[in-house]
Amino acid sequence: MRLTLLFLALAGAALASTPAQTATYIDGNVTGISPNTGGTLSFDDGKAMMLRTGLTSVAVPYDAVSHAELGAVKEDAHGKPFYKFWSRKHKIETQLLIVNFKDEQGADRTMTLELEQPAAQTVLDDLEARTGKQFTASQTSARKKSNPVAGGASVSKNGEWWGDQYWKTPRNADKWSKPSEPNNDQH
Description:
16% helix, PH-domain like, alpha+beta, eight-stranded mixed sheet
């Protein structure tokens, strides 16, 4: 009995420990919220998470959540002009969270939220704990992906890069001509 009460108390404390998160509603079909609206995502209610914007509050009941996933990670310098390079060094990584749910009328709703990257994973973990469902975490990234070709130049369909004929790189090492063995017959 005591062990059960202790477990319930710890589980309740773990669920209640998720703080409110700053979020931006990016896209979706939720009525009353326009795209790129900032708000707060809170978990005060044990039955639903709330997205509160300036004019609208949307409750997303945990039992109505059918799917949730993490989307792309983006690096943002908060719209600083490029010429202000000294202020662009403080970049924040954000991540998209896509939530599918049914509203009070039973209509399918989708909302895409942009959160700071660590907060997005926390929110997804919290949704999994409160719904009892496993959701997927995408590892895609909107950052500049490393390209095997220097400078991000394009590669043709057969894997050839136009610079391979001019430069020796680890990428085209198999096509280099091997140096001949020195001839030791010279006297």
